[in-house]
Write a structure and sequence with these properties.
Layout lengths: L20 E3 L23 E3 L2 E2 L2 E5 L5 E2 L2 E2 L3 H10 L3 E6 L6 H10 L9 E3 H12 L4 E5 L2 H9 L3 E2 L6 E4 L7 H12 L3 E4 L5 E2 L6 E2 L1 H12 L4 E2 L6 H9 L7 E5 L2 H10 L3 E5 L18 E3 L2 H7 L1
Parallel strand pairs: 1-2, 4-7, 4-16, 7-8, 9-10, 9-11, 11-12, 12-15, 16-17, 17-18
Antiparallel strand pairs: 2-3, 5-6, 13-14
Helix pairs in contact: 1-9, 3-4, 3-7, 5-6
Bound molecules: magnesium ion.
The site of magnesium ion (MG) has 7 residues, from loops.
Amino acid sequence: MRIRLPRRAARWKTGGASAVVRATCTPHSEERPVSEPEPNNPAGPVVYRSGQEIECWLTDMDGVLVHENHAIPGAPELIQRWVDTSRRFLVLTNNSIYTPRDLAARLQTSGLSVPEENIWTSALATAGFLKDQMPRARAYVIGEAGLTTALHESGMILTDQDPDYVVLGETRTYSFEAITTAIRLILDGARFIATNPDATGPSRDGVLPATGAIAALITKATGREPYTIGKPNPMMFRSAMNQIDAHSETTAMIGDRMDTDIIAGMEAGLHTVLVLSGITQREDISAFPFRPNQVLPSVRELLQQL
Ligand SMILES: [Mg+2]
């Protein structure tokens, strides 16, 4: 399949499926010739950015690796390649419903074998943020096991008695009573945190109201905006990079949305790869005031470069 690149990414040179691909992200930096991979390099061929090897990968899940519970062609092989070559990588999701173990099991049924330690959710990022801000804080939580488990494991106390925070996450059983409690606690001074800003989520029968929609309801009633952790807050990526000891200069982000994955990746200083297998289509890209470093039809084409 022919790979079309945006103007900036056209500076990349490809030398065929087995060749090293090297990015020159600094406009005036000197081009260096494309080099062949070391024959005995156990990590195999690699992607370079400004002469430095991309050592770590962050990737979005829906629209990049899976679509409606089916693995996107190339995704299982990409994950396997990273596992086999001991690459540091994390699969990111704004969904805070599931624990990494639950998500790994769900991905497995979609045909993707992702170790649970390679999954990073907005719930984990939120737990890490709160632990950093106020160790052993008290929190009133609206959410599912993915969020409550992460908060418990980070040492937080879950309570509706005088909490320091109200933490809102994704749930399929929003209760008017719980929302009322959250509103009253925020009005009494609890700080308002949301795991992710998504207004809707997908389901087989159509869209579902998601965390952002419920947050808007609470904001309307309290006049207080939440601090939101998930994408497009670069906090999500920074926390993920901390988890795998990655550095922005040598980390890439793969996503299917310009308005979340790519903007947040750019703001976190990462090399950004937009795949067209999800939300953003090629004709949408030019409307945004920023560009991904690379545009590919899907991860299958990325796999060919690795
Ligand atoms: Mg996506």
